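Thread: tRNA uridine(34) hydroxylase, structure

OP (GT): Posting the sequence first so everyone is looking at the same thing. Length is 301 residues per the record. Can we get the structure tokens written out before standup tomorrow? I want them in the notebook alongside the other entries.
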Amino acid sequence: MSIVVATFYQFFPFADYAEWRSPLYSLCEQQAIKGTILLASEGINATIAGSRSAVDTLLANLRSDPRLSDLTHKESLCPDYPFDRLKVRLKKEIVTLGQPNVNPNQQVGTYVSPQEWNQLIGDPEVTLIDTRNEYEVQIGSFRGAQNPHTDSFREFPDYVKTHLDPQKHPKVAMFCTGGIRCEKATAFMLQQGFQEVYHLQGGILKYLEEVPEPESLWEGECFVFDQRIAVKTGLAPGSYDLCAGCGYPISEADKASPEYEEGICCPHCGDRSPYPLTPEKRARQQAKSQPSQLKKTKDNK
């Protein structure tokens, strides 16, 4: 039986969000759903996995609330759960930009469907920006996109203020994994005086799902925040693993590096990884890897 992986988000005034945590957790637990659901006063954001019937039950329950009646989601299939457990968390923001005055419920950029995206970014007047972080951009992006070289989404406003100008960049197109970061990024840019701001509807995942490879302008793979690590066109599983030491996506070439130690570190450790490898963490990783290393030694005898 395949596991359905569903991602969804929606910005809406959600004053009673804290009251949802317990019943939502209970429902997911009853349905054997795993993954993460974030609740905040600005809306909901989730990536969850479960059986077909379990996912359908959860989505139907959410859509029974009038505020979420038009909730859309993206899904793919996985042979097993890509998450170890279930988390339902209360947050200040469902995606953290750190700009309290930015409200996607008031204004966002113009949505562009995956089918219309190629034509838009082919316009020489359009400045194309990848709103994701450095470690995500490194394994794949759209051809010709600017890389802001950010380590967290909180840094994006500073990038806009120092590298972009409403007068010099009249048309801006933006994209991210599933679309949620662009909701806030486009709202922020409109607030900064940019006139024509566009974003890829459904994000990279929707584009990879709907645009066939011969027509695709995507290069590489797309990092995802679960045990699949990365996906390709058609949302097929990618070729990357995750470094146990720093959390950076690693390729077969990375594993061939002399700086790679299985279960401990990789060439990116201490660089621009999401979670830098400290000496204390290295010691913990070495301790964890010892049982498996001992088993390999015995098996080879």
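GT: Both are above now. Quick notes for whoever picks this up: The two ends are 38 Å apart (CA to CA). Confidence is low (pLDDT under 50) at residues 292-301.
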